[in-house]
Amino acid sequence: MYFVENESWGSVIYNLFLQLEKENKSHTSLEVHSPGHAMALGIKIKNDKENKFVINFYDPNQTATHKRVFFCTNNICDIINLTAYDFLSEQCLKCYGLKEDTLSLFVDKTKSNDNNNVFIKKLPDNILQGVVINFAMGAGLREIIKKVYNDTRFTDLTKSQMKILCESKNVNNVPGLL
Hints:
It comes from Escherichia coli. The protein is α+β, with helices and mostly antiparallel strands. The chain has helices at residues 9-22, 90-95, 130-139, 142-151, 159-167, and strands at 2-5, 27-34, 37-46, 52-58, 67-71, 103-108. Helix 3 packs antiparallel against helix 4.
């Protein structure tokens, strides 16, 4: 699992390609969860004369216009520059809660999601965000909740900040505990 800021989608995708090459695999798929929506991302290495790196992005609300992007070995570093804005329109970003909370959760569907075996590969710099807690509560990620608890000086928070953190509401105003 990866907690990914809007500006870091490309960096995570690039690292996934490197991981595929290292493990001698050709493809993987991920669920992409925003605070208000779920999408899918497929990445594939096509071993032909150009060694194409293929990114397929699927938004179930935009079924006729899924995105497919190709990169070759000579421009693979360009993947790093991709952001959520390259995959989603301004309207979709707002509707899916990615304008207010600029964080998504990428879940590798080829790995076990058993809560005892979940491996968090990337956390945001600031884990003290309602959206992080909401994702953690929704996915049963106890280690994230423990980390927030252990790393936070709650006495430094105002009552309002503490209330927002404890509610951990998503973009639809639904608390993380529901």
